[in-house]
Amino acid sequence: MKNIFKYTFALLAIGFVSCDPEFDSPVTDEGFYTSGSADLSKYVSVGNSLTAGYADGALYITGQENSYPNIMAQQFSFAGGGEFTQPLMNDNVGGLLLGGAQITENRFVLAVGPDGSPSPVRLVGTPTTDITNRLTGPFNNMGVPGAKSFHLVAPGYGNVAGVPTGAANPYFARFASSESATVIGDAASQNPTFFSLWIGNNDILSYATSGGAGVDQTGNFDPSTYGPNDITDPNVFASVYSQQVDALTGAGAKGVLVNIPEVTSIPYFTTVPRNAIPLDAATAAQLNAQFSAYNTQILPGLVGVGIITPEEAALRMINFSAGQNFPIMTDDDLTDVTAILQGPPFSLPAPLAALLGQLRQVKSDDLIVLTASSVLGTTPDPSNPQGVIGVSIPLSDQYVLAVSEQARVTAASTAYNATIQALAGAKGLAYVDAKVALARVANGGVAYDGGILTSQFVTGGAFSLDGVHPTPRGYAYTANLIIQAINDTYDATIPMVHIGNYATITVTNSP
């Protein structure tokens, strides 16, 4: 039963070739391209990991060089744009050091294993970027991986002393202007003539990627009480986002606002099949016999004493059949009946009561996260070959984003997007509907000069090996979307790029 789920990469090496970016038009005569009513001479980009150029589970030089703001700045240079600087990492390994000790992981690479099959692995190597070596700015790219909306206005978010406790961000600590600086303050102090702002993804993403392990903080207006995986209250988001837009437009700068995509469309949530457990008829029958008492006696008994509803009992039913099956899981949204099952009238042994406490089977509308592929079908206890995760051992809730949890994510992102769009309209700023754009990539793909860009993990070309962040090709697509919105809003003629000339995933064992 080991290794039930495996990555399948058909004809992986075909087409995964990169070359230097080129422009759509060879015309470079001065005055051919214009910025319209926008002034691109001092462009500052503000955001999180997407803005920074994060990819493959880390921040590294090549990713930063292919960040969408850097791609845009290269195009802006044809229409009056000025210099664009970034707080570059020291290497392509990707990890961060704090006083010589590594505090973040190296990036993923797609390496070929001993059996000849490619799979994502962490690059082996020693990073050289130490956050105690503060860079001298200012920097035009103010993208800070891990930042949530309210972090951008938090003093001390770049204080190295706060990194070990989580009070500060190691990426911002590298280039903050001072220990008490704010991200938005450092951005606005540069007096940009043009800006881009893309923030809010992390306000829901960490909740989603943790399988809903956090708390939906809707109704709690104090972000200082939030945990790292919590959903930000929409009113908190609206307040801080408005502050950020006001700060960036205070000196008359024009800019572009980007909304929040549907995070459940990314490969992190769409790669692992829900029915990942293959069973023959005999094994399925054996499992059904083992869960028979649970289905026919325990669940009705819990309904009878008023502990759970009939609807919850139906949700908790376990059933296997010959073929592909949904794994069993724990669901922290269900009533925890562990203690009840240990007492009368059930009187179950503690281990069995714990197993059944919040047990159900994954449903067709649930989403299994990418990291579940490393544990599904494995036997964590070698002395118990029957103890298979997903079959006789529940898949932990952290690996499944349930329908109820998806609804919380959608509700929050919908509210965030309403704020973003309203402010873009009120301020006369360009607006990019990234939600619609990602949906196109996820549902059939987007045609470009070299093929089709899809959200298929590894082979689709749009997403890097972490299943969340784009490849250079995906960032080029993003840059074109934003440039198009700028052109439409400000009557500009900024050239776009050939998406196919930017790299996607390659098979490599080195940085």
TrEMBL record:
Q: Name one GO molecular function term.
A: hydrolase activity, acting on ester bonds
Q: Look up the domain of life of the source.
A: Bacteria
InterPro entries in the record: SGNH_hydro_sf
User: What is this protein called in UniProt?
Assistant: G-D-S-L family lipolytic protein
Give the organism, scientific name.
Aequorivita soesokkakensis
